[in-house]
Amino acid sequence: MTLLVAGDIGGTKTILQLVEVNREESKASVELRKLYENRYLSNDFPDLVPIVKKFLEEASEKLGEKQKPEKACFAIAGPVVNNIVKLTNLPWIIDAKLMENELGISQISLINDFEAVGYGILGLNTKDLETLQPGEPKSDTPIAVIGAGTGLGQCFLIRAAGVIKVYPTEGGHTDFKARSQLEFDLLKYLKKLHNIKRVSVERVVSGMGIVAIYQFLRDSLFATESPEIGDQIRQWEKEVGSNQITVDPGAVIGKAALEKSDPLCEQTLKMFIEAYGAEAGNLALKLLPYSGLYIAGGIAAKIIPLINSGSFMEAFKDKGRMKPLLEKIPVHVILNPHVGLIGAAIRASNL
């Protein structure tokens, strides 16, 4: 048994867990037992060290004895170089080596938040997943992970010498490839709107992509915009660039699509889901992940009924002669919102 601290560090909030880990080297999975968890407003602290100290004091009081974790891993939305990261939305510079000395924790690792999701795959069970395609699983083959949220993350896992390692990528920044006349029109719209020569797939398959698709369909007069939805989207458009955003346009559009109450929102999500499925299929062709392709991110789990409608998997498999290969790949949606924290704990256990 090993005592660890796992963290999900964001510009708004920091979530920390004290975790007891039982890891069997012969197995890909690990047994995690959460002992204590708490959330903190990141802006209330000058850096991460005071948050961890406060957390360990609270955990010790709650559990009745002093808690001395051996290792820690913190998942952070940002590039990590030499175990050091400068946060984008906070005036923090986190240095793992300095933290080890200040906290008395022997080993601390900093990893990108999507890399943490990759490790988190190893700690999930069936209740954490919605299976879109059972496929024909094969051990000792890659695992692929794709996740649309604020951006579009992609990574893959490979087993080597009995150890599974996560490799992050920048696949979300590859070119968006239109597959229909409507998507060609969307591509031209985005180039003109942003005055750019190329459009990355992240501009379409992400939270901002949902809004962009809606704006394109609205401006193209695809369907009449409802006053209720239109007022909220225009309110958000006015607030863009300010410090006070009162509307989450992606959530507004997604809710209307789920309720089937607005044709414009329904078509928006249809285009989004098809583009998402197509990009997942592209990733699958590059890696042939017969150990599974996992859909992560904050969006898919919220729109499971729409993902299950069929268009996601149709677009995923629509690869001509390669369709039989893609039919053999297991495809799952991750339902557990704490997969990143699970991954941080697993990564810490590997230190």
From TrEMBL:
GO terms for biological process: glycolytic process. It is found in: Cytoplasm. It holds the Pfam family Glucokinase. Its EC number is 2.7.1.2. It is an enzyme of class 2 (transferase). GO terms for cellular component: cytoplasm. The keyword RNA-binding does not apply. The keyword Chloroplast does not apply. Signal peptide: none annotated. It catalyses: D-glucose + ATP = D-glucose 6-phosphate + ADP + H(+). Keywords: ATP-binding, Cytoplasm, Glycolysis, Kinase, Nucleotide-binding, Transferase. InterPro entries: ATPase_NBD (IPR043129), Glucokinase (IPR003836). ATP binds at residues 7-12. One of its GO terms (molecular function) is D-glucose binding. It comes from the Bacteria. Belongs to the bacterial glucokinase family. NCBIfam families: glk (TIGR00749), PRK00292.1-2 (NF001415). This is Glucokinase. It comes from Trichodesmium erythraeum (strain IMS101).
